[in-house]
Amino acid sequence: MKRAFVRPLKKSLRFLLPFLSVLLLLLTATVGAATYDEFNGASIDTTRWTVNGTGFSQSAGDGYLHFSAVGSAPQSMVSTALYTSGVFTMPFSDYLCNNDAPSAQGLGSIAGLGLGTRSGNNWVRIERGQVHGGGYIEVNWVNPNEAGNPIHVNWLPSSITSGIFQLVYNGTDVSFFHRTDPSDPWTQVVKTDLNGQPVLVNGQTQPLVISPGWGSGVPMFVSALTGGNPSDQYGLSFKVDYVDVTAVPEPFCVLLLAVGLTGLVAARGRSKV
Q: E strands within 53-151?
């Protein structure tokens, strides 16, 4: 009688464990998730952002952060919150500019999402940009330990006018992702050459991963630059739907997902026998 009870119990646990693991993962993954700003207020929330420049604006009921400016001065909105890790997401749309500057001279018109401190010359950014040669998605970063603090460039051609940027910072490394539509899978930015073509090692692309060495929490920022030289007076406009900050999944959660999915596959295989 005892053995007859134990076998069904073991069988039930064998089938329940995968489902419970996935359920626990989903519940854990929601912890720390938050929309940092949906831009629904009558004006920019200065308790959340330090605004540099006059090109950013928002109005009640619109639900967007707008940027529109002419000139060459960089502008930004820097979060008042600091982060030691996180997944940072920013959808943008209606990107429009008349930039006709030459390429490879740092004169592009950009709309971007970044992490770190510009004043400390220790930051990373993913952006949509435009020059005479066309549009692009680009990742920039600056290492404070390098002489002259050059801005590093990793780019690929792109003419999208709307899309979604994402930075994944696990506390040590930053990875960069983008997609055009919310239903599209995320595309990780890979290392590219000076011509914007993927760098292949043994026939394989290489993910671009930056290790900034931040020793404490850093802000995120929304970046805008009309581009060109001061005399060019190029115009740039775009809008941002929201900015999300989500906790990076813990390794334990990833392990649970692996266990859960393995169990689900095994259970499905057994059910077909």
A: 56-57, 65-70, 75-79, 86-97, 109-117, 122-131, 134-142
CATH code of the domain in which 95 resides: 2.60.120.200
Contact 240, 64 (CB under 8 A): yes
Q: Has residue 267 been placed in a domain?
A: no
Question: For the chain, how far is it from start to end, CA to CA, in angstroms?
Answer: 27
Give Cβ neighbours of residue 200 (< 8 Å, ≥ 6 apart). Answer: 206
The mean predicted confidence, pLDDT, of the chain is 85
- pLDDT tens digits, one per residue of 46-59: 999 999 999 999 99
pLDDT band at 250 (very low <50, low <70, confident <90, very high): low
Residue 129 lies in a domain: yes
In-domain check, residue 224? yes
| pTM of full prediction above 0.90 | no
Q: Which residue has the tokens 């909105």?
A: 77
Taking the C-alpha atoms of residue 269 and residue 264, their distance in angstroms, rounded to an integer, is 9
CA distances from 180 to 89, 93, 163, 167, 217 (A): 13, 10, 4, 15, 30
CA nearest to 69, candidates 236, 227, 229, 222: 236
**Domain range for residue 145?**
37-249
Q: Output the six-digit token pair for 266.
A: 């095994």
Split into its structural domains, the chain has a count of 1
4 inside domain = no
